[in-house]
């Protein structure tokens, strides 16, 4: 993942991309006794290989036309040679490859099945680290090559952003499985991140870096709770939203952590998600992307329905014969494995701290994007 984020060349990028994919296949299928895990691993392997084929072919077309596969030289060559039909075709193939890896609509179909089939900690890794690395790579490619300045590429990316936000949120509304709901939520979140990508400049890149850190901490906290509750249940992952009825009564600390994570994804104040979306929409306003700004705000409102539905379930009283999450003492966070307790504590502390004092991370994000060569 670090190699992918640092790549400035198509060869190093592809090697890092493939290393991530093969590693994740093994992690997704790690619980071999569960058929869903093996099925998810096979699906991810096949679709990842398909995405790789698109990326290689797109790279080949661009290299054939421009004679370079270095990101920095692409901008110079494109200014000199212009955009031919073959280059547009190569860029389209690259967008398909990135679309699969980032689960952009309509290339998102693998996401809910893999999220549901993979163990909860692995799902958290896919949703946070894997996507963050590929998005950082995509940001470097688009920014250094100046692709977003081209009208056709800009239109394609804008359409992908709008369709991904609406598609992810509307599909999440129909879910009763919390892992699939978070999968479609992840789809929508990447749609939001395409807005500052198109906005460009330092503010756009810094807002992406800030949002990725915030989103990673939030996602790890959410899936961490699913993992801990599933461990207490001892019957596999607890996935149904109905199974979380009464969580606040039996496990108040876990309920608070999960609720805070969901509110951060929604973008409520006093959470890191609020400032994440604030910086994204500010970058859009500064660049005059008013249509995408309005679409983003509308979709933030739509997402409130399914996030709040889970929170209402957490704080509602379960039926007496429901057989939902077992009763536990209020110190259950201490009775969980130490690594789980530390992970949840650090993740939710990050979410709350950044929701109150975001300046240090924003400063680090600005420094980080300077290394990408974005001005």
Overview of the structural elements:
The structure is a single chain. 78% of the residues lie in helices and 0% in strands. The protein is mainly alpha-helical and 375 residues long. Helix 10 runs antiparallel to helix 16 and helix 10 crosses helix 17.
Number of helices in the DSSP assignment: 17
Major β-sheet annotation: none
Query: Can you tell me the number of structural domains?
Result: 1
Structural category: mainly alpha
Number of strands: 0
Point out poorly predicted stretches.
326-334
Per DSSP, what share of the residues sits in E-state strands of 2 or more residues?
under 5%
- From the alpha carbons, calculate the radius of gyration and give it in angstroms: 21 Å
Q: What are the secondary-structure elements, in order, as H or E?
A: HHHHHHHHHHHHHHHHH
Proportion of helical residues: over 70%
- Separation of termini? 24 Å
CA-based shape = globular
The average pLDDT value, as a whole number, equals 85
